[in-house]
Structures
1.
Amino acid sequence: MTELRSFDESLPMALLNAREAAMARFRPLLARHDLTEQQWRVLRALGAESTPVDAGTLVDSTSLQAPSLSRILANLSDRQLIDRTSSSSDQRRAVISLSEQGAALVAAVAPESETIYAQIERQFGGDRLGHLLGELHDLAASLEQPAPERQ
Amino acid sequence: MTELRSFDESLPMALLNAREAAMARFRPLLARHDLTEQQWRVLRALGAESTPVDAGTLVDSTSLQAPSLSRILANLSDRQLIDRTSSSSDQRRAVISLSEQGAALVAAVAPESETIYAQIERQFGGDRLGHLLGELHDLAASLEQPAPERQ
DNA sequence: GCAAATTACTTAACATGTGTAATATATCTC
DNA sequence: GAGATATATTACACATGTTAAGTAATTTGC
């Protein structure tokens, strides 16, 4: 009989717990600004771009599903945090950018977010955290490769 | 002006992406057995216990909220995957254990899960993965400590 | 140049989950 | 026994995942 590995040895559970613990630090900040995690992911992604992006790009960079993103964009647009137009060369494409208000919100959240991040680095160790980040990226990259056939 | 750290440097995003990548490997397995991630977390937690547990214990071990757990238990109970009684010594306490069917389901999923896990270890390196798990546990542990006051 | 296929995005519908608050019900404390 | 506390469930409002269908714009093949 195959023994199932314990909770502690489960990679998905370890990742979930670590993320939960990290988000617990950030969630109050987002709540103060009436933002869900996903809404913040979108605003953050937009803030990272120097030029307006289309919805497909956002789907990729935020790891959200297209229907979820549509709803979130509608919400952010209602709140006037983003501007939406359509590409002149391809009118199917939505072109999205931070509005002035949206940019101001990102600018307001950023320093608080960095403060929290600095706390985490002090507690866990900056170098150690940097190394962990690298490992997480590598792990995600190898997992995105198809599983090799067993020889 | 505070520059927001890029997506790549964000710990929550890195954890989310890594978890997504990992779950992508496991999700088809769960789907074949008509289980959501959370339902599986509960069954797995129950499978790990040698004795029946109460709902509060499950809340802790699965990182689910009590109301979510209640609904999930109702669902699993409808599907006869768990048995629920109440403690004779304290009738507020729900006493939950895997049913015979539930144990059979866990036993059916376990070997497939281990196969997937072994693939991940082959791709990423077993030692490296073990070390990463340790770091994730440590990170979660330090994050669960209250943030120290800045000196 | 036009019908058919494709692409990009949106909308709908449904199930599930989160988060907070309110509600039994049982137990404990005085 | 009255009131406080603990355990679990229920209720509600909302966000998200997922699948499917819909709309409009563009490209392709003839």
Note: Strands of chain B lie at 82-86, 94-98.
2.
Amino acid sequence: MTDGDRGPDVAVTDAPSPKGAPTTARGVRTRAALVAAARTVFERDGFLASRLTDITAEASCSTGTFYTYFVSKEEIFLAVMEAAKDEMLHPGVPHVEASDDPVSVIEASNRGYFEAYARNAKLMMLQEQVATIDADFRQRRLERGEAFARRNAKAISRMQDDGLVDAALDPIMTSRALSGMVGRLAYSSFALGMQWSVDDLVETSTRLWANALGLRYRDDA
Amino acid sequence: MTDGDRGPDVAVTDAPSPKGAPTTARGVRTRAALVAAARTVFERDGFLASRLTDITAEASCSTGTFYTYFVSKEEIFLAVMEAAKDEMLHPGVPHVEASDDPVSVIEASNRGYFEAYARNAKLMMLQEQVATIDADFRQRRLERGEAFARRNAKAISRMQDDGLVDAALDPIMTSRALSGMVGRLAYSSFALGMQWSVDDLVETSTRLWANALGLRYRDDA
Amino acid sequence: MTDGDRGPDVAVTDAPSPKGAPTTARGVRTRAALVAAARTVFERDGFLASRLTDITAEASCSTGTFYTYFVSKEEIFLAVMEAAKDEMLHPGVPHVEASDDPVSVIEASNRGYFEAYARNAKLMMLQEQVATIDADFRQRRLERGEAFARRNAKAISRMQDDGLVDAALDPIMTSRALSGMVGRLAYSSFALGMQWSVDDLVETSTRLWANALGLRYRDDA
Amino acid sequence: MTDGDRGPDVAVTDAPSPKGAPTTARGVRTRAALVAAARTVFERDGFLASRLTDITAEASCSTGTFYTYFVSKEEIFLAVMEAAKDEMLHPGVPHVEASDDPVSVIEASNRGYFEAYARNAKLMMLQEQVATIDADFRQRRLERGEAFARRNAKAISRMQDDGLVDAALDPIMTSRALSGMVGRLAYSSFALGMQWSVDDLVETSTRLWANALGLRYRDDA
DNA sequence: TATGAATGAGCATTCATTCAT
DNA sequence: GATGAATGAATGCTCATTCAT
């Protein structure tokens, strides 16, 4: 399901390759070709069904070359994710911080998330698949989600102090729950094929989020 | 991730075995032993890592016998789920129906769900794994979730008509979102190892759910 | 060289196969075919150059069948040695025990050893090769040699007590040294291709052994 | 064990590199670095397990550079042995020549051998390993042993003529047998880990040698 | 029904060797 | 001379599936 427990907002590993980065320009090119090929193959066949030889064939290089840059399928998968990181963050997801209207911030955040998700739906499904298969990957994702959840929890806490948010809610669990809700919605929509528009997703999820926190929703009188 | 989008409440396949049920008493016993062994092995090693020979070994029968009752690993997995269905529904999750207090109903439902989840966490993780691997299983789960979501959506709709729930919410998407939220929470807690108590989970999720819908939360004056 | 440090006399492992022995008659036949094939292939190509597929081809079975009975090339090698054990002991190597004439006993023992060696020269060379490659095998051989050396040392000790043997010699080191001498001679002769007759080998080694211990050599007046 | 049949005394190949010696100073340095690295890696991992890339990595040079100086792993191994030749001979092993006391000469020779062996045990084991693997190397060693054995046999012959040594012994086989005995003892002690002191080894092997030949042992009245 | 031996396609992985820069 | 990326043949090993007994 989406990334870890994050829901809106994305952050991906930056673990360095165990096999040192290529020195020469040619090496850089080859490695990049492999990563690109891997993304293509993974998205087409899924992580499990993808064979290393499919990837090297797609990258037009020999089997051995794969092992010049990567140790395993898991590892090149991480590299694919790493390469997609910027792409997935691009939409500019503002963190929930001081601002005129908290609901607008949440809405913008959600919109950014859904749009990024739509653009990278295949990759997001892949993440889900790998997370259920690979405990390391799952752990890594969990930790990234942790960081994000804490940031969000802090924002919720602040709004509770300001009397804007239901004081009875546990900030961290609430953060997890609402992120999870949005993440799950995106997954259902783009990965499972539920046919919802981004606008509707944004509208409903933002309203639910705002209601849940006890924020006054923008358009309501 | 729970199954599909269900969140609270569980429903499992009832697809009949392609290999007709065993006729003799011995056959019934052998088949049952295989299903029990499969559950043990799947929970221990995960679906992917489990080999058919592990299952037959655990069931103390020969490799060939497996094929007397099942066509594939996928099929025996379905049988495991089928066998666990009752067990997982047991805690008595009342559907959201007419009653004095909607929030109490939601709370009871959530509690039932979290408790069932806790008891069957390994199996729930397995479901997640298989869903990301097997398109058929994913589809099946989606459909079951669909039915459940529609029932829930109907209840929400009714409450909107009665002026109890925020009328601006799309019932079906809301149903999905809130179920997803609870499902995700359970997954984080029992599968990923977040250390939350069932009471806290019930409390927070129920409050968020009630707030999100616009219901007045029980204890609040 | 030769086996462990034994020199005359042979004793081979009786470690049971980690993969349980076959249950059916067919299984027993197949396993035996594999062991026989392995001996043929090992003797023909050497341990290192032998590929598992060469062995299964020679045994007329599929690759997978190999793994029904053995875990690795090392393991089937042990089985080959085990199967050859009787064959190699056959010549009746009497232990050095009380008897009329110690020198005759030594001579008979040496003759038995050289004859067995000649019959199984290829296998003996294989043992050498594997011992330099595989630490486990080396250790195993060392331990078997240890037991044999102690037996021999005891006999030497007894003869020292009886005033038959040079009392200044350390029994255990002497046992090792003389066994090693004979083993090395056999290796040079049959494995390295030194062209010596068994009679000459027996004559010289026995005389050296007797002289070294300080025994009076039979034929000398 | 030990090298060929040599026992005491050591002599190593002086085959010239097929790839002509380096011309530039840098070349000389690189080649030397490779040989040193090879020794380190061979001693650490054994000949078989050592990969060319391990050696170049240890020598801090590129893979390609290896082929500037060597044709194969076998070839660099010979170079390592060549480089170690002096080191292994160093202890000054006097050949068995005219002298006051034959036993003293044998003793000095044995001591020199055991001490050299102890210093270069890893290399000696390597030699064993390679000899069982590489027929060329085995042959080369055999020939060197041959030369040494003949020298020794001549000395034995002379002593037989002088009535100092048992005339019934075949000089060449005796030479091989006794050298083999000492070589095997050294191997057991330093390569297999038998815990014997050099003094004890020298004492016992010299006494056995002297007895075997029929020489009167120094200390005996 | 039950058995368990036999099958073999399928895939990952290694590493000596080459060669363009 | 030195570099290190690229190569790809060679091989080990797994495991779902079949089938004779």
Note: Confidence is low (pLDDT under 50) at residues 1-14, 90-94 of chain C.
